[in-house]
Amino acid sequence: MVAEISKLTKEIKHRGPDLITRPVGRRMYAKIRDKMKNISAHEVLLLDFEGIRVIDSSFIDELIVRLIIDSWKSDPIFYVKLKNISIIAEINIDSVFKSFSQYNKNEIAVITDGIRQNNSFYIGALSKVEREVIEYLRINRNTSVHDIGVFIGMNDEEVSFLSDTLFRRRLLRIYNDHISSV
To answer: Is the pTM of this model over 0.90?
Structure first.
């Protein structure tokens, strides 16, 4: 499912290319959640920010963070992915994620459609080994626990634990004993 944020701004009667304030974030969240009523299990919600220059921390907290937290708890399971994020938006998202992680003692990250300033395909906090798994899946798309273990030098049990952790954070998919990218 694709949510074209610039089109949705018109639907919530917001003007301008910048998305700032909690009320705007809440209206956008409500609009997207309404559109997600029939989302399929394991579907990706792609938030496309084409044409949006700036999103501030309040908007990020009310939209992106809430959607990611929803994805952790939702039935059916869904995943959040970002597309066409400006550099300033990326900096703001990363800052909000760091604050969230410190305050809530719960790390948050999101997959992106393109390479970011951190030279990877995600924004947020990942350990070195978690990043290696995400990068491996970016290239290989679909693989087994054993194949990931061979690549990163871990046994199957360790990779299973790591994969479960990344799955709970909705940074990868697990089904039928296979692991795939978002």
So the answer is: yes
Residues paired with residue 148 on neighbouring β-strands, in sequence order: none
What lies within 8 Å, CB to CB, of 29 at 6+ separation is 62, 63, 66, 67
d(CA 150, CA 159): 10
32/92 same-domain check? yes
pLDDT at 176 over 80: no
115 and 176 both lie in a single domain: no
What is the domain count for the chain?
2
Rounded Cα distance between 14 and 33, Å, is: 17
Task: Assign residue 146 the CATH number of its domain.
Answer: 1.10.10.10
pLDDT of residue 118: 87
Q: Which residue range(s) make up the domain with 96?
A: 1-125
Residues 60 and 132 in one domain: no
How far apart are the C-alpha atoms of 125 and 106, rounded to whole Å? 10
Residues 35-72 have pLDDT tens digits of 999 999 999 999 999 999 999 999 999 999 999 999 99
